[in-house]
Design goal:
alpha/beta; UDP-N-acetylmuramoyl-L-alanine:D-glutamate ligase; 9-stranded mixed β-sheet; 4-stranded mixed β-sheet; globular
Length: 339
Amino acid sequence: MAARTADMPLVVCLGEVLIDFVSLRSGVDLAHAPGFQRAAGGAPANVAVGIARLGGRAGFVGKVGRDPFGEFLCATLRGFGVDVAGLVFEESALTTLAFVSLTAGGERDFVFYRGADMLLRSDEVDGRVVSAAGLFHFGSVSLSREPCRSTTIAAAEAARRAGCLVSFDINLRPALWAGEAEARQVVADVLPMVDLAKMNDDELAAFAGGVPLPEACRRIRARGPRIVVVTLGRRGCFYQRELDEGFVAGFRVRAIDTTGAGDAFMAAVLCGLARGGVGNVLDGGRDELRRVLRMANAAGALATTRRGAIPALPTRRRLDQLLRSTTRSAIPPGRRARG
């Protein structure tokens, strides 16, 4: 684990923490998976661990069942140095599980067994944990059901009032929503309270597709975010803010499992913001922002080289090794948001 800087702001991540059961064989759907490997997961939890592994300060707010999986997840987060003061145990529901496989077409096949994560109530969120943060991060999974939806929105509003940078990963999982229309509306409703919105190109297409990538990002930014970042897999990422926009190249690696790659990317972005100063990175010169995004591309690439999410999150040492390499993919201009 990288040495932490004591005065780096705390990044608080709120949302789901769960058990990922990852197929032992790539290139098959879940129905044909021969077996599974257990791993701690859940996007906001992955981000928290990713920040800690890169030397940042991270705390987690969420809920698990009072069961062996819940105890395992708590111990895992704590073992990586994440502050778990905001983790709540639920007596009446089991810990959430997800089964994950990578199909022959390169798409991830998911099945979720929702449990305790969606039962987090506002009165269970310690306001002192949120107010202690310099950056607050959440995703869309915790918005897909009540009471966690209202809890997430209330916590994000409180973080914004406290002066935190608010970060949102759209991280769309259609199977968890009552329908696409509901997902689109809820996401649109929370964007005005967000400073940084991150999504992949498929997610951008779901909310602003059918137009060139820059225009799609402008439509998202018009709802409130100061910056929009779109991940493009091995091709890197695209960013847009009021000052400028552009592509940042990705890294070529031998990928075996893409689970958690976006979370590794997000962790590196938030760690870079915390280390470099939010204002300096988001509102400063182009070079500093691109440096942070290049680091994030490297983190996302490294996360694909091992199975699972948390087990694959890179350390600062592995990240620095890849950043020193010169083998980067080229990104053609004119990328369009699909839809």
